[in-house]
Amino acid sequence: MQGYPLQGVRILDMATVLAGPFSATLCGDLGADVVKLELPQGNDALRGLAPVHGAHALFWKTANRGKQGISLDVRKAEGRALFLRLIEGFDVLVENFRTGTMDQWGLDLATLHARNPRLIVLRLTGFGQTGPYARRPGFARIFEAMSGFAHLTGEADGPPQHMNYPLGDAVAGLFGAFAIAAALAERNARPAALQRGVEIDLSATEALLRLLDPLAAEHRFQGIARERAGSRATYTAPSNVYQTADGAWITLVGSSDAIFARLCHAMDRPDLLQDARFATNVQRTAHLAPLDTLIAQWCRGLSLAALGSRLEREAVPFSKVYSIADAMADPHLQARQAFIELQDPELGPVPAPAVVPRFTGRAAPTLSVGPSTGQHNAQVYGALGVSQEELEALHTRQVV
Q1: pLDDT digits (tens, 9 = 90+) for 1-48
Q2: Is 145 helix (H, G, I), strand (E, B) or coil?
Q3: Would you give the distance in Å from CA 285 to the centre of its chain?
Q4: Cβ distance 172 to 207 under 8 Å?
Q5: What is the spatial distance between Cα 217 and Cα 140, in angstroms, rounded to a whole number?
Q6: Within a 13 Å sphere around the CA of 260, how many CA atoms are in the beta-carbon half?
Q7: How far is CA 187 from CA 90, 195, 197, 198, 247, in A?
Q8: How far apart are CA 319 and CA 1, in angstroms?
Q9: d(CA 256, CA 56)
Q10: 371, 64 contact by CB (below 8 A)
């Protein structure tokens, strides 16, 4: 059976924590051969982030799934020399150190391309390779705050909020995987003699900014800096989160005129269609408070089952607000096998999200959990001609 699209691509992931590694993981999901490089001490911060189950770093196991693991200290002369031998066999290098750090280690772009002219280098940092903030440290919540994303999250009369997950890292990782695929497509479309690698300068802050398409234009032309509004959308209506009689929460979207009409029928309120305040989306957004009050009162009078039955009958888009337990139990997601089992020699099956997207008629790669530190040193370095004796000596000197 035909493999996934990135089969045959080799990626060396020397990034830490989440954003850069997530880029490489997504490529691995699509068939790339990914090798994860850590320091010999195995002190990547992701190994200590919750959830940690006993001695098992579950975040590491799932976020770095499908990768081989090697250890190497490139800051040491022997490590740098071994790294330059290693990089000759890869298509892509992923790193997320502060701008200029690789240069300080003698691994600048010119040196890397002298060894491997076809190498694509993804540099994923908080603020990019240029500009006054280029050397600042960055974490997901910093990106979320500086991009304006956190400013939009929370109740109108409350403080800005972050969600309980590093969304900024995940978004940057998505852009990183997309950039790698684009660079590979460009490089491989050229004749072999002209295939050159590129440097990708990815700012995680700019990645989040890119999601907020109309906000800059809204600010310039309408003088509006969009504010928090809780779960209520202020650009389309109705679109909010409502509680049912039995305490469940649903999200409901009735933003087009046709859907709003169907919602009115579900509510047994056809009279609302004659109310000038709700005639169009523009009018509905101008009268959000009274419209939301009507819908919230209706939802509070019905159980989730009864409410769902009415909304489904009228084809109104809605969903219970799921926890991860709800998602894993959902019959549609089960039928789609939206969760897979990563095999771990110590924990057994470890549930994780399935490969996205799917390529019809092809079997997705079988994935293992993230590797232990240096787990595949013998295989990877052995392929370079490093003997077991040499490897043991390098280990003694804490090079690997």
Answers
A1: 478 999 999 999 999 999 999 999 999 999 999 999 999 999 899 999
A2: helix
A3: 31
A4: yes
A5: 25
A6: 23
A7: 14, 5, 7, 8, 55
A8: 37
A9: 48
A10: yes
Tokens 């999901």 sit at which residue?
Answer: 29
In this prediction the pTM is: 0.94
CA distance 287 to 305: 29
What residues are annotated to the active site? 169
CA 76 to chain centroid, in Å, comes to 32
Is the CB of residue 208 less than 8 Å from the CB of residue 144? yes
> CB-based burial of residue 391 (10 Å sphere; 0-12 exposed, 13-18 middle, 19+ buried)?
middle
pLDDT digits (tens, 9 = 90+) for 346-380: 899 999 999 999 999 998 888 999 999 999 999 99
- Spatial neighbors of 246 by CB under 8 A, at least 6 apart, are 303, 304
Report the DSSP beta bridge partners of residue 341.
351
Closest CA to 14 of 101, 78, 77: 101
Non-local (6+) Cβ contacts of 375 within 8 A are 68, 69, 70
- Report all structural domains of the chain as residue ranges with CATH numbers, in order of start: 10-211+336-396 (3.40.50.10540), 239-320 (3.30.1540.10)
The label of the residue with tokens 């370079």 reads 384
Degrees (nearest 5) of the Cα angle 110, 113, 116? 160
